[in-house]
Amino acid sequence: MRLQEEKTALSKDGKAEAKIYHGVYDVLMAGMLASSALYAVGMVLALIHPHTIELTRDYILRNYKINIMLEGLAHFRPGALFFLATVLLILTPVTRVLISIYAFYTERNMRYVVVTGIVFLVIVVTVVLGRMGLQ
Amino acid sequence: MYYSWNFAVPLFIAAVVAGFFGALLGVGGGVFIVPVMVLMFHLPMKVAVAASLVSVIATSNAGGSSYVDQHITNLRLGMFLEIATTIGALSGSILALYLKDWLMLAIFAVMLGFMGYVSFATRNLDDQRIARGEFALACPDRLSAYLGLRGVYHDEALGRQVDYVVTGTTAGTSIALLAGVASGLLGVGGGVLKVSAMNQYMNVPMKVSVGTSKLMIGVTAAVGSILFFLAGLIHFYVVAPIALGTTLGAEMGTRIMNRLHSAALKWLFAALITYLAYGMMAKALTLRFHIHLPMPM
Fold first, then answer.
1. Which residue of B2, B218, B236 is in closest CB contact with A52?
2. Is B43 in CB contact (< 8 Å) with chain A?
3. Residue B186 burial by Cβ neighbours in a 10 Å radius (0-12, 13-18, 19+)
4. Average pLDDT for residues B217-226, to the nearest whole number?
5. What is the pLDDT of residue A7?
6. What backbone torsions phi and psi does residue B202 show, to the nearest 5 degrees?
7. Which residue in A52, B61, B153, B287 is deepest, having the highest Cβ count within 10 Å?
């Protein structure tokens, strides 16, 4: 009887976990495809119209600003496409973490909501430290 | 720098080759692409590390998804160890902001040597361990039992289900933390460390270790990338050919990996690692002490 109960619990667990696996897989694939496509289009555009860029931190801080990027996106500028691709790429694993938190929450698996929540917290701390302007 | 075919195309091709060998040798592209950017393209170490870290996310997405699809990845174990790897990555990338370039180069060279040693010294004894039932019969430690870290996967090569019980969470977590630091500081995935931690210390079968490591690499590299992004170290024009190239190269490498003889690969790996470690150390000495050793590239 006990064994039967355990087996049912396990298979229910397995089904729920399969859903999480599916969600994780979808996010990873979508993130990879979208960012690769944007990088590829941007590269072609950049190579059709070669131009000088500086390899300095100064250039990065001066040019990679959100309003310049938004304007660049409207004009299909390669730098802006690379920017968007990179943001999407970085957000892919972050989204995966968020989806996992939600999925564990719907399963009422609070231990793993906490585990995954801590990972998300580390990401938040990273953003805060980065925004505070390290160095 | 003039962004034209002369610069972007060779960088892209170098990234394809680095991604290809990375996948072929099971170490990921970062290990090769950082030295290539620094030694061949003379990019600043920090810009190279930041660009490599973004490309590590891309290859992790691509490589990790197939393991997730086949349910080989242990999601619970991955999410548990990610706590350690992300904290490590945050510390490593903060360190990278403050360390001098020559010191990062020297640490990178040491890491290459260490990686060469680990992958040369570890033998994959999984088939014997599975046959003896070693993976299934171990006793879980308290944390492993509390978090239900045990797992099961279908091994296609052996044609059977393999059950395993996770142990050694303390040792595993400590090594995962170190792998995170290496990732954030040096722009690599740190997969070799994570895989050996899980396989050697946590009683996790090799295939599960590899799949779970690839999943963890994504979020670990994302943490480092976010910090570099906000600190203004990610140059998108450099990232684009690197990320695209390593992803493509890694796809090709994974496809032909299974058809190659592994003993020959080990020697190739040892030769490549020695060559790159020497190059990075030579550059570090040049930057710090103005000593000019003959440079390989």
1. B2
2. yes
3. buried
4. 95
5. 44
6. -115, 5
7. B61
Cβ–Cβ gap B2/A50 under 8 Å: yes
- Which chain A residue lies closest to B74 (C-alpha atoms)? A21
Which residue is listed with tokens 């990088």?
A39
Interface contact A53-B4, CB threshold 8 A: no
Phi, psi (rounded to 5 degrees) for B7: -100, -50
* E strand residue ranges, chain B: 2-3, 151-155, 160-164
Residue B172: helix, strand or coil by DSSP?
helix
Give rounded-to-5 percent helix, strand, coil for chain A: 85, 0, 15
Q: Is A47 on the interface with B (CB under 8 A)?
A: yes
Higher pLDDT, B247 or B69: B247
Q: How far is CA B241 from the centre of its chain?
A: 19
How many CB pairs below 8 A link A and B? 184
Residue A52 parent element (H or E):
strand A51-52
- Whether residue A6 is predicted with pLDDT greater than 50 in this model: the reply is no
CB B107 within 8 A of CB B187: no
Length of chain A: 135
pLDDT of residue B296: 60
Average pLDDT over residues B156-170: 89
The answer to whether B249 and B23 have CB atoms below 8 angstroms apart is yes
**The pLDDT of residue B98:** 93
The answer to whether residue A129 neighbours chain B at the CB level (below 8 Å) is yes
Q: Check whether A8 has a pLDDT greater than 50.
A: no
Q: Which two tokens stand for residue A90?
A: 């970085």
pTM: 0.90
Answer left, alpha or beta for residue B43, where phi above 0 means left and psi between -120 and 50 means alpha. beta
Contact A66/B at CB under 8 A: no
Whether chain A has a CB inside 8 Å of the CB on B100: the answer is no
From residue B191, give the alpha-carbon distance in Å to each of A53, A59, B43, B273.
34, 33, 24, 16
Of A132, A129, A62, A135, residue with least CA distance to B224: A129
- Asked if A72 has any chain B CB less than 8 Å from its own CB, the reply is no
DSSP A53-97: ---SHHHHHHH--HHHHHHHHHTT-HHHHHHHHHHHHHHHHHHHH
Q: At what angle do helices B45-69 and B101-121 cross, to 10 degrees?
A: 30
Answer whether residue B171 shows pLDDT above 90: yes
Mean pLDDT to the nearest integer, A83-99: 92
**What does the alpha-carbon distance between residue B230 and residue B65 come to, in Å, rounded to a whole number?**
28
